[in-house]
């Protein structure tokens, strides 16, 4: 029986391979992908499943791209986590941090900051989730979050509270406790919407309208301000 020699491209190239260079990924996996879409999907996975349970392979499958694409672009999962956190938190911080540079007096800036933060938690429950997940134990990720984002914000908050205290009494709760009330108090309230819909039907979660939720966030902000500036 004669032995078949190797097939040439002209003789027997498989139909699926025609039109593609040898060694290229399957169709669709080598297409350019929007960086924001990639990082958004990665951050969502980390917020939902946690760092250890999230895999780059699963993220690539969700995005419809080659697993190698993520490896080439980020190298390791830790680098993807850092990139996703940087992108998401820098993007989200703008709406709140503008209160620090407003032209009003210290007390007005503080009131504006607390209102903005309470409203911010409505649409940033994924950041609240990552904060809760990573805040449970010591890790390089907690160090990264604290050093790059939490501590710089806390320092600006401390300075603002000090400015206000020179004009009127301020409750001695401390900036760390105030941040905890904002992120893990108000933030958790909106992050756990289905639970609070059952506990407080009047909360606005059932209707799902942003107007209802913003109004509720403002009530919570005024509650915090009343305790802080008694």
Task: Write up this protein.
With 230 residues, the chain is an all-alpha fold. It has a domain at 93-228: Tetracycline Repressor, domain 2 (Orthogonal Bundle), CATH 1.10.357. It has eleven helices and no strands. The chain has helices at 9-12, 35-49, 56-63, 67-74, 77-97, 106-123, 125-134, 140-165, 175-191, 193-199, 210-228. Helix 2 (35-49) packs across helix 5 (77-97). The longest helix has 26 residues, at 140-165. The protein is globular and about 60 Å long. It starts with 8 loop residues before the first helix and ends with a helix.
Give the biggest beta sheet.
Answer: none
- Percent strand: under 5%
CATH first level of the domain at 93-228: which class? Mainly Alpha
Mean pLDDT: 83
Helix content: 55-70%
* Oligomeric organization of the protein chains: single chain
CATH topology of the domain at 93-228: Tetracycline Repressor, domain 2
CATH architecture tag of the domain at 93-228: Orthogonal Bundle
**Based on DSSP secondary structure assignment, what is the total number of beta strands?**
0
- Helices and strands, in order, run as HHHHHHHHHHH
The best one-word shape is globular
Give unreliable regions as ranges: 1-30
How far apart are the termini? 98 Å
Cα-based radius of gyration, to the nearest Å: 25 Å
The number of helices is 11
Class from secondary-structure proportions: mainly alpha
